[in-house]
Amino acid sequence: MPGGVREEGLSAPVDIQRFETFSYPERFEAIIVPAGSFQLVTEPEAALGVLRRFHEALCPGGRLLLDLDPLASLADTSRTTRHWRDGDSLLTLSEQRVETCFQRQTMLSHLRYEQWRDDVLVASELQLFHLRLWGVLEMELALKASGFKEIRVHGDYGADAGPGPEAVSFTFEAVAGA
Predict the structure, then answer these.
(1) Pairwise pLDDT comparison (9 vs 52), residue with the higher score
(2) In the chain, how long is the greatest CA-to-CA distance?
(3) Model pTM?
């Protein structure tokens, strides 16, 4: 159950599905795909199928909110490291790009998760992280082809901010047609 729901005395059904096989018998008022998660679908035809399934899962007039990284991210190959504390542990996440394909707009990175306690490495995990990036116009066309209308694009989570050249994220808001 999502964090905070149980503490508030509420209940919410939780279901985990893959984008490629997403299906529900009921329709929703909104579908929110945060933090660039849609980019995990690396094949364009499969991504179009996902958008069509999202459209089918929405009530007429329902909204799809979808976050994407800008195409400029393909050119950024710098290594990044983040860290945070969890009790007595220091957790680190390092990302290193190992492959970029500008033609297919994809990138493959190694993500290394580490857990440190008392300056000793106690656990480490390596994950392959494959993404496909979308251009703004390309995503607008894909949404229209999937039945969406009233498509708006916001930069950096600003309701009134357009997708300017300095934006580090884009949020697409699209309304499901009948």
Answers:
(1) 52
(2) 59
(3) 0.86
